[in-house]
Design goal:
The protein has helices at about 10-25, 35-45, 65-70, 105-145, 190-195, 240-250; strands at about 1-5, 30-35, 50-55, 75-85, 95-100, 145-150, 155-160, 165-170, 170-175, 180-185, 200-205, 210, 215-220, 225-230, 235. With about 260 residues, the chain is α/β, with parallel strands linked by helices. About 20% of the residues are buried.
């Protein structure tokens, strides 16, 4: 799906766009609509949408300059919706912009959206290939590192990559491993965090520590949970949501 937001002052234009998307582009998912750019900035920073419809009349008090300086902008496509006769100056020189005047020519708008969809699909294919390569290298690095998990009677020597997650149980910690094993260690979760934070383990919740390499998804629609490689789900606390989202976006190529 191509995550999309609309920033448009006129209700009629927003409704026209929504109707076109609904009827002709099922791969475009509308995740928000706003009448002013400033109102949509927070949502943009949280969602990092693939596509933004941006009405030039919604730009007030230098808001465009602030928007264009956003570091997450390069991952998005921007369809600039201008009034007839308005200049393209300021939007040239970047391949993230498409320019269309209102009222829309439906054929032209469909052509622009088909072009954007093709570009995003190609980029996603390339990114999947790169991420698979990076994932193999990351796994190889962690396979060279081992951790000793000590129980009452046994020293378990575990490859770090095989440690999927840790979960606090008062002054103890459960360690969940690939293959389904679970080991209870008489160390606090904070002890594990201090030991593993430099090896791409993240703490999305006060009771959980997660191996970044085993995160398959962040389900933001379902109370913000991380879905891991062993199909387990780990909650993300409210105050950690934006931090974890940024961490995931920066650790892997964003699309």
């Amino acid at each position: 799906m191509i995550r999309t937001i609309i920033i448009e002052k006129e209700n009629g234009t927003r409704n026209e766009l929504k109707s076109l998307i609904h009827d002709a582009f099922p791969d475009i998912e509308l995740e928000g609509e706003f009448s002013r750019l400033t109102a949509g900035m927070h949502e943009f920073n949280m969602l990092k949408p693939d596509l933004v419809f941006l009405d030039t009349s919604s730009l007030l008090n230098g808001a465009l300059d602030v928007f264009l300086s956003n570091p997450g902008l390069s991952a998005s496509r921007i369809v600039i919706m201008a009034q007839e006769g308005e200049s393209k100056k300021g939007y040239n020189g970047s391949d993230i912009f498409e320019f269309i005047t209102k009222p829309f020519n439906q054929k032209e708008l469909k052509s622009i959206l088909q072009k954007i969809i093709s570009q995003v699909e190609i980029e996603r294919y390339i990114i999947r290939r790169i991420n698979r390569t990076l994932g193999r290298e990351y796994k190889k690095i962690l396979q060279d590192k081992k951790i000793v998990l000590k129980t009452n009677h046994t020293l378990h020597i575990v490859q770090l990559y095989d440690l999927i997650r840790c979960e606090a149980d008062k002054n103890y910690t459960y360690c969940f491993l690939e293959g389904g094993d679970k080991i209870l260690v008489s160390k606090t979760l904070n002890d594990f965090f201090n030991l593993l934070k430099d090896y791409d383990f993240i703490r999305p919740h006060k009771s959980h520590l997660v191996n970044l390499g085993h995160i398959n998804a962040m389900d933001r629609a379902n109370a913000n949970v991380l879905i891991l490689s062993d199909k387990s789900e780990v909650p993300v606390s409210h105050r950690k949501r934006e931090e974890i989202y940024r961490k995931l976006s920066s650790s892997y190529l964003h699309f």
